[in-house]
Amino acid sequence: MQQQEFTEEQKQMAMDHQKLDMERKTIMQKLIEIGEEEREHTLVTETLEKLEDDKKCWRLINGVLMEKTKKELLPELQGVIENMKALIKQLNERAVQIRDSMRKIEEEIGQNIQKPSEEMKETEASGRSSGGVLA
């Protein structure tokens, strides 16, 4: 099998593709983290809603424990949850933009950029040997 030579432009596009893929993975990790935090805040909010308005609550803010009432704390937590949802939406939109950019690069190069393990799986699935005597 003859190996295709790539132009400098194609090599640069492949490097850009890798950078975008790394950014996409970072965004996905951040989405998981923020999603977990949002679920925790939602759980706390649901628990607080069952309490009386004058019930004392404690919230840790930058290493300082703050005393507040449920009536004071609940709107703050709901605001934090809304901010997290907005951030999740922004990160999802960026992930879609990255995916689209990656697809465009793949089309411009004229082939799908694949990881070596994926190429090996395709080779095995199509019945081609990797060059061994006992194929």
Overview of the molecule:
68% of the residues lie in helices and 9% in strands. It is mostly helical. The protein has a two-stranded antiparallel ribbon. Helix 1 (8-49) packs antiparallel against helix 2. Mean pLDDT is 82; it is low at 122-135.
Task: Write a compact overview of the structure shown.
The protein has helices spanning 8-49, 70-109, 116-125; strands at residues 56-61, 64-69. With 135 residues, the chain is mainly α.
Give the N-to-C terminal Cα separation. Answer: 16 Å
According to DSSP, the number of beta strands is: 2
Give, in spatial order, the strands making up the sheet with the most strands. Answer: 1-2
SSE order: HEEHH
- By DSSP (H or I, 4+ residues per run), the number of helices equals 3
**Main sheet record:** 2 strands, antiparallel
Unreliable segments of 5+ consecutive residues: 122-135
Q: What Rg, in angstroms, do the CA atoms define?
A: 25 Å
- Helix content range: 55-70%
Tell me, rounded to a whole number, the average pLDDT. 82
**Content of β-strand:** 5-15%
Structural class category: mainly alpha
